Amino acid sequence: MRIAYFDCFSGVAGDMILGALVDAGVPLTVLKEAVAALGLPGLAVEARKVMRGGFAATKVDILTGERPWGHDPGLLHPDPRHHHGHANSTPRPHAGDVAHSPAGGHAHRSLPRILEVLRGSRLPDPTRERAAAIFTRLASAEAAVHGSSPEAVHFHEVGARDAIADVVGAVAGLASLGADRVEASPLNLGGGRIATAHGTLPVPAPGTLELLKGIPCYGSPVETELTTPTGAAILVTVAAAFGPPPLLTVRAVGYGAGTRELTGQPNCLRLILGDAPDPGATDEVAVLEANIDDMNPQLFEPLMEDLFAAGALDVYLTPVIMKKSRPATVLTVLAEAGAEGRLGPLILQGSTTFGLRLSRRGRLKLTREIRTVETPYGAVAVKVGRLGERTVQVSPEFEDCRRVAAAAGVPVRAVLEAAREAARRLITGGG
Length: 431
Known about the structure:
Layout: E1 2-7, H1 14-23, H2 28-36, E2 44-52, E3 55-63, E4 109-110, H3 111-119, H4 125-146, E5 154-155, H5 161-177, E6 181-184, E7 187-188, E8 193-196, E9 199-202, H6 206-211, E10 217-218, H7 229-238, E11 241-242, E12 249-257, E13 268-275, E14 282-292, H8 300-309, E15 314-321, E16 327-336, H9 340-350, E17 357-364, E18 367-375, E19 378-387, E20 390-396, H10 398-408, H11 412-428
Parallel strand pairs: 1-6, 6-11, 7-10
Antiparallel strand pairs: 1-13, 2-3, 4-5, 8-9, 12-13, 14-16, 14-17, 15-16, 18-19, 19-20
Helix pairs in contact: 1-5, 1-7, 2-5, 3-4, 4-5, 4-7, 8-9, 10-11
């Protein structure tokens, strides 16, 4: 499986994602064709090599020109000063892709109008749908902040043509990269304050912070915004996990440059493209553990239910003897790598523990699939486990067997045995 891992040690912005993709080997023509497919006048895409903190990186610029976007008075007329990669008469307030200009600096554009542009484009359906999902996520975050609905939100900071080009280019570039899965590191937010259409606010902007709910992130002494709304929206939509780099055989590395030089660190986004072991044979799981000796045992069941509902792969309890011969319980939670930030707070809030042990563990597993078999009592789902091309495990889904048994008025054991036999016949017959 090929994985694209974004190392956001200096934050993330739309133009940084584009630069990292091109630097890692995506042809610039892929981005140009995607932007051209929008059918918006005056847009152009350029790339150049720059130095950031002593490192060579690729800077991708979305040039908008001075021509207004269409003639519909409801459309956005961007401020031509905010071209990517051009010297601005007013310094940009952050190192990324979208300026948080004061009221009047950018016109407003609503989600329905942006979706209309995407629907009317010549983009392939998967690119169009993923771009629409990113902007819908942005609108939902802004709506939550302003107490409105996504449809009523007007984007102050991310409605310009260059931001739409960033989103579409990122989606098209990732598709060209051929990655089966996208992951990212925790996000560096930066620090200080920024000027927005709603006044001066601390970093990150409220909409960005809303987007990052459930995502590991951190602040830094850098007095600027490092993670922008566009960059955050792209990553939280396309990334399957946030955490340390997974086990990879590295195939390519790309560095995407931000707009400004930073003091003390290179303003780059690093993209690592690599091959992970066959997910049907090995993977990595997060392990969260806590020793608990002072909790009402009745509270374990609702905590386990909450953890499973939040995506835990497994939750189990182990009785142990602690110091002073106190009986206790070890709560162990297995989850996908990167889920620690989502599951850890549930344990801390739902139990009496004061802390957790976090680790990552490699896992060897069978390739699994669910098949449906017919029994004399009804259809039952069966989990089939394969090692390479060889089937080594067949396990009927117990809840299915119990439901079928209750409907047929027979013991569950009879349905289990019938399901196993039907699964064996299916496999032997080449299924």
